[in-house]
Amino acid sequence: MASIGEILLNTLSADQQIRESATTQLETAANEDFKQYVVMLCQELNNEQSQARIAAGLALKNAVAAREATRREEMSARWMNIDAATRDQIKALVLTTLGTQDVRAGIVSAQVVSAIAAIELPQGQWEGVIRDMLQNLSSTENTNLRQCTLQAIGYICESIDRDILTSQANSILTAVVQGARKDEPSEAVRLAAIQALYNSLEFIEDNFKREGERNYIMQVVCEATQSQDVEVQVSAFECLVRIMQVYYEMMPFYMQKALFGLTVQGMRSPHERVALQAVEFWSTVAEVEIDQENYRLEAIDNGEQPTHTNYNFAKAALPETLPVILELMTKQDEDDDEDDWNLCMAAGTCLSVTAQSVGDACVAPVIQFVETNIRHSQWQYREASVMAFGSILEGPSQELLVPPVAQALPFLIEMMNDPVIKVKDSTAWTLGRVSQSLAECIKPDVHLQPLIEALVRGLDDSNRIVSNCCLSLMNLADQLEGEQGPDSPTSHMSPYFNGIITAMMRITERNSNESFARTSAYEAISIMVTHSARDTFPTISALSTSILDRLEQTIAVQNEIVGVDERNSHMELQSNLCSVLTNVIRRVGKDISPIADRIMTVLLQLSTSASKSSTILEDAFLAIGALTTALESEFARYLDSFAPFMFSALSNHEEHQLCSIAVGLIGDVCRSLGSASASYCDNFMTTLLQNLQSPVLHRNVKPNILSCFGDIALAIEGQFAAYLDVTMSVLAQACNIRAAPTDYDMIDYVNGLREGIMDAYIGIVQGLKSSDSSLLAPHLPHLFEFMSTVYNDPERSDALLRNICGLLGDLAESFPGGEIKPLLISEWVNQCLKEGRSSRQNSVTTREVARWAKEMVKRATM
């Protein structure tokens, strides 16, 4: 039998059969005797003579670590089931291997140490691992041992919860900073130390708050940016980026004394990776200051004293940083891959966020750059000028931007004829930004025809620019919608609608989806349809026929598809077609009736041919939901044929998004059919209640189910009495779910759940209003208690406040004779309605609902 070393080497073989056989042997060994398996791997990793050391270390790491949470828990349990003596033996060997002569094996050992520590430290085990490694750093001249130990510490800091390591922060920081000093003779050790410092920045908060320690840390990092080793420079700038994100409030002194100069110098570095990180530093400054300003304004709106300070570093540095950023935007080649992140892209992104941060201050110098270079003989400068112009259209005031944009628009349209594809691509992107943010600069009688002609020509150009041309046309459709919205008889876009749709349909006929050209065209068609005026309906009618033809063709060839890539492309095509069809149905409403039978037939065929886990079912269901809303009661003729698909989706708990869409379809059906849906409600309610009890179904579906109860009650009105008690019991249970103050994911979930509960209560109250509201009486005390709890929760959303106000109004209207006066005169009710009416933070809709509710409550308590 082959040795463990031979098997490990075989996993690296170029022969697929040998490689797969070796992998199977390793999996079998792990399953048969995991303890012996990891011991063998550890010994092989520790063996200085073995050629399979790296493979052994990687196999050992993969035996105890995984990305997926479920798999990670399984591996953790399997490791902890090994007896303590054996685990200690393995850990000792791995720590010893950190000092091996083969630094590659030492680095893999560092990963193994981190993987084991990630399992044991949270369980109170191996608490001496950091202490033991710090001892390595202070008592050895072995450079490899120091380098790999620092890497292990860095990996542990990256993967372990900060609270577990806080007590050892001082020791870790001392060792890491010691290794990162400029007089460290080994650049490899210095690099590992800087990377470990990066990973430890969050849990050394207390150290960073102390000025003396902070000064020393900043000195060490700043000195590292001047290292002769490029990797150390890159890591040092990465460290500065992270420091700015985490400790912005403490940066004024260092920005003035060192960081301004160091980072501007870094952006000019001949080494692209160094320059990229220096540019990223200023992008981060701008992003943080945007957040700081938002926090400050939010506090002022709330009548509170701002606790966040915006030091305006980006604005202060603008005279130094902006010329460098603009220069870097010219650094590109025609052969650059559009998917590769490079210095030109980074600079463009930096300019965009800087404009959002500093506002008007960037306009004049950028406009000067544009005027100088927009007709430059070198295409890189033309492209940079157009990109720079587009990058500042969000942030500065509209008043300042309108004149230069209006002046530049004819030049931009003309530049869509530039011979260089990259220039045309950036021009199309900039035109999209103009049409999105400054559409008032586009005068329909002057600019619209040449602009649309240029964009349509672009659609027939390289796939690379199609997406941005489509984006521009989508924005134009949105911004130039008719004055009466969907009811407009015509719009500025109507004369061009047929030509645009025809051009985009040509794009969709291409065999490939290179640069997402085909997907962009389908998306643009959907948006064009959504914002179309009524005089374009003949074109939309012809479009719907073409889409149905294509869908039928895709179904006909479904069984001929072979290969994963071809199948994925086929599914994407069907998804795009369904999306267009959905938007057509939503746009024309009842006018879809003449072809409704054909649409439903195609969608049912699509549902039949799709696999259980296919996302096509989701797209088909969304189209059916739109058809349900459009046809209203006429949809009843399709329900018996469609119901099996809907109930199958409701039972498919593993595909929770599909299940959620199916829940929404129940609401669509009930709203459309009204009381005629009552005969289906027994099955609807039974299935929905079963789903609420499912331990497998994703929790995000459950708020939608609760909301659906309201749709059902609103549709069948008094007939909902048969389900009232069980529904109110389920809602009462859901009302008890709370979130910890620091569990932000749970806070969002609870807010969503409460919105679903409120939707249910509103539907039930409104549904029973016309029959017998007295059925609600036993449930009202709990209902008011729940509303009070939600109102007094500081994390509640504007939507929840609006729903509380609306429900109070509905209840007051349902009990106008003073029956619930004691509940309605509660102090919290008065405060809630007052806040809903008067707070500037609330939406207009919330204020209107609160005013109406106030009047209803007043009448019910007179």
Automatic annotation (TrEMBL):
It is found in: Cytoplasm. PROSITE patterns: IMPORTIN_B_NT. Signal peptide: none annotated. InterPro entries: ARM-like, ARM-type_fold, IMB1_TNPO1-like_TPR, Importin-beta_N, Importin_beta. SUPFAM superfamilies: ARM repeat. Its main location: cytoplasm. SMART domains: IBN_N. The keyword Repeat applies. This is Karyopherin beta. It comes from Linnemannia gamsii. The gene is KAP95.
